[in-house]
Design brief:
alpha/beta, 3 domains, Rossmann fold, Archaeosine Trna-guanine Transglycosylase, Chain: A, domain 4, Aminopeptidase, eight-stranded mixed beta sheet, about 500 residues, about 25% strand, six-stranded mixed beta sheet
């Protein structure tokens, strides 16, 4: 496979700077998968104009290890039309020429950290062939689990004092904040969230609850009005393909619910690709730019997300108001076999399951967005609909071991696919089912009746003890164990309200 590397990737790799986990992992996988690494003639020209002369000399030697495209593909008419609409600088034109190599199939994929390149790729319909480092790592690890040579431990909560402050992971924070080490040591007994890969720290999260009137916010413009807030105090995730950033978002939203805050906010610099990607992720999940925070370290951007169940829910794009949902949409209950359940919903683990089995991460575990594949004749689900997850029991009688565990929100539904690859790309990295099983057990199972895919958001885990099938019968949702449909069971508003009320407000008698 021919992989074209954008200029920012080459600079990230070859300049005289300390290498980091992201770029190291990228080239590890490119070599492991035996992909051919290419650079564009325009990249060479751009590297020769790089400001750091020492880096130019170094890179001029190192780029000889890459394959160079000998010829530039003539610009496609579609590309020309888009260029006239969006390109405003020579760099924009260069990026378009590089994208054209993908569009004209001169190369298979492009890896770039440039936001505008990704925007143009989506407009051209080739977004699935243009990757960031993180998305490429996610694809590589999900499609080649047998080649994963490092163990990534699940996110866990520890005290600051248990984390090595001298770890190079924190160097970027030290560069941004003069007082970082002093601040970190002052938090010694406070909790934070971490993730390790081969004993290397790869992700860190610290959150803080600020009660109304406790903070002045004098350094933020416009100044915040008094509210109870959750502050994302420190957040960094290095690229490793495991969607830890999304897992951290779930942690943030869960804490916001627990402490009943009215708003979530974060202050962040926009100096490095990792920070740009973090901002993009926050915007994808409903954060917006509020203003600027000024300090001796410079001006930081302030991103805010309102957080209240009284606000209108965005049914068309549920991510923007996640984890809140509308009770005006349709409600369904779906069955999931136990071997799939906790892989997809780790926070909804059965009390009798072995948690040690779920210490090693997979992208589908950490994603908030999950894929559910079905041949059900009920295909009328729409974005914003509610799905209750029913974990099928393993022990007899199953009416006591089968439980309703989770509330999910439908993000999108896709019922038509051009071919298997289209189907695979739709559910890949959101499900634990292997590519081979997706082909044999789903795509080919009924040649004249293809499956469809529902992407839904993992919103809430019901409290323990969770409602059982026996409770569903007592609540008159089902008449008996045999009346539970194989596909989607549509619930009335009354049935849904009774079940949720029972789950949260009543104890189950044993």
């Amino acid at each position: 496979m021919k992989v074209l590397l954008d200029t920012n990737i080459v600079i990230h790799r070859e300049a005289n700077k300390v290498s980091n986990f992201d770029i190291g992992q990228l080239f590890y996988w490119l070599d492991k998968l035996k992909y051919d690494k290419y650079i564009h003639p325009l990249t060479i020209e751009e590297l020769n104009r790089y400001n750091d002369l020492n880096s130019v000399k170094t890179m001029s030697i190192k780029i000889e290890s890459y394959n160079q495209l000998k010829y530039q593909a003539p610009l496609n008419d579609t590309i020309k039309q888009l260029s006239k609409q969006v390109d405003t600088s020579p760099n924009d034109l260069n990026d378009t020429q590089i994208l054209n190599e993908v569009f004209e199939n001169r190369v298979d994929i492009l890896i770039s950290e440039d936001k505008k390149i990704h925007t143009k790729a989506k407009q051209l319909g080739i977004g699935n062939r243009v990757f960031r480092i993180q998305s490429f790592l996610e694809k590589a690890t999900a499609e080649n689990p047998e080649l994963v040579g490092h163990k990534v431990l699940a996110v866990k909560k520890v005290d600051f004092a248990e984390v090595n402050l001298k770890d190079s992971f924190f160097d970027s924070f030290r560069n941004d904040y003069n007082e970082f080490d002093k601040w970190f040591n002052g938090k010694a007994e406070q909790p934070c969230y971490v993730c390790y890969s081969d004993n290397q720290l790869t992700a860190f999260l610290f959150i803080k609850i600020e009660n109304a009137g406790e903070e002045s916010y004098f350094d933020i413009s416009p100044v915040f009005a008094p509210k109870k807030r959750l502050k994302i105090g420190t957040l960094k995730v290095t690229g490793n393909g495991y969607k830890i950033g999304e897992r951290f978002l779930k942690t943030i939203f869960d804490n916001a619910l627990l402490f009943k805050v009215e708003e979530i906010y974060v202050t962040i610099f926009n100096k490095r690709p990792e920070q740009e990607q973090l901002i993009e992720m926050l915007e994808e999940w409903g954060f917006y730019k509020h203003g600027i925070k000024s300090s001796s370290n410079g001006d930081e951007l302030v991103y805010v997300r309102e957080f209240s169940k009284s606000l209108p829910v965005n049914i068309e794009n549920p991510k923007l108001t996640f984890p809140f949902f509308s009770r005006q949409t349709d409600k369904y209950l779906i069955r999931i076999e136990p071997q799939y359940h906790t892989e997809l919903f780790p926070d909804s683990i059965n009390t009798k399951e072995d948690k040690a089995k779920y210490t090693e991460n997979e992208p589908h575990r950490n994603r908030i967005s999950k894929a559910y594949i079905s041949h059900s004749p009920e295909r009328n689900l729409e974005s914003g609909d509610i799905v209750l997850i029913y974990r099928m029991g393993e022990t007899i009688p199953k009416k006591y071991s089968s439980t309703v565990t989770t509330i999910c929100i439908v993000e999108s539904v896709k019922t038509k696919f051009t071919d298997f690859d289209d189907f695979f790309n739709c559910c890949n990295r959101r499900t634990m089912i292997s590519k081979e099983d997706l082909k044999s057990k789903w795509w080919d199972k009924f040649p004249k009746y293809k499956p469809f895919v529902i992407n839904f958001l993992y919103a809430h885990s019901l409290p323990t003890p969770k409602p059982t099938l026996n409770d569903l019968i007592n609540l008159k949702i089902f008449a008996d164990p045999m009346s539970l449909p194989k596909g989607f069971a549509k619930l009335t508003n009354e049935q849904f309200d009774n079940l949720i009320s029972f789950a949260y407000n009543k104890k189950i008698k044993k």
